[in-house]
Amino acid sequence: MRIIPKQYQELELIFESINSEKARCIAFASPNGHSGATSLAISVAKRLSGRNERVLVIDLNTCNPLTGKDLVSMPNALAKWSFGDISCQLNAQSIDDFYFLSITQLQDLALVREKDVFDMAILMLKQEFDYILFDMSPICKRNHANFPLHLLMSVTDLLLLDIALGKTTQETLDAVISELKSAHCRRFEIVVSQMYMPPLGERLIDSINRRFRRLPKVKHRLINIVNRQQWLFQGV
Question: Domain 9-193, what architecture?
Answer without folding.
Answer: 3-Layer(aba) Sandwich (3.40)
